[in-house]
Amino acid sequence: MSNTENTQEIAVAANTEIAVAEQQLPTNFADLLEASANVGKLKEVVTLTNAYVELEKPSDSFKGIFVGFIQMSVTDKVTGELRQMDAAQFLIDKKMFINGGVNLVSQFKRSNVPSGTAVKVTYLRKDGNVKVYELTLLG
């Protein structure tokens, strides 16, 4: 492999099949110019902007691919301080979503769910201020 090209693999899981697309990433300006001439011909693959997936009432659920964890900044409602917390990240219908529910994130961590796993998340009930979720692996 030359020093002017890098290979990036993007894996998207769908049921039990994995589609892998390789894209050559140019590292100099001339290559970027060339790539920009063809960008209009490319298809959209995935929306990377994270939206928050909120489950409002008990029995609400979603199915998606667990991607992993990301850090998000939140403002503490009591102190007003900005703090960091983990959120679970999901790929649902070719769009990225996050949920920072303490109970949900904790379940994923305790269960050591690998990235790329198909899951169903169901909101069961609320205990005090904490939403309780059911996590189901799909296959």
Write structural notes for this entry.
It contains two helices and eight strands, in the order E-E-H-E-E-E-E-H-E-E. Strand 5 (82-92) and strand 6 (95-99) form a beta hairpin. The longest helix is centred in the first third of the chain and has 10 residues, at 29-38. It is extended and about 60 Å long. Helix content is 14%, strand content 54%. It has helices at 29-38, 102-111; strands spanning 5-14, 17-26, 47-52, 61-75, 82-92, 95-99, 118-127, 130-137. The chain has 139 residues and is mostly beta strands. It folds into two domains: 5-41, no CATH class; 49-137, OB fold (Dihydrolipoamide Acetyltransferase, E2P), CATH 2.40.50.
Brief write-up:
By secondary structure, the protein is mostly beta strands. Helix content is 14%, strand content 54%. The strands form two sheets. It has a six-stranded mixed sheet, with helices on one face. Strands 1-2 form a two-stranded antiparallel ribbon.
Integer average pLDDT: 82
Proportion of strand residues: over 45%
What is the ordering of alpha helices and beta strands?
A: EEHEEEEHEE
- CATH topology of the largest domain, by name, is OB fold (Dihydrolipoamide Acetyltransferase, E2P)
Q: Which residue ranges are poorly predicted, with pLDDT under 50 across at least 5 consecutive positions?
A: 1-22
Identify the CATH architecture of the largest domain.
Answer: Beta Barrel
* Main sheet characteristics: 6 strands, mixed
DSSP summary, beta strand count: 8
The main sheet orders its strands as 3-6-5-4-7-8
* Number of contiguous helices: 2
- CATH hierarchy class name of the largest domain: Mainly Beta
- Structural category is mainly beta
Count of spatially separate domains: 2
The CA-CA distance between the termini, in Å, is 37 Å
| Radius of gyration over all CA atoms, rounded | 19 Å
Helix content: 10-25%
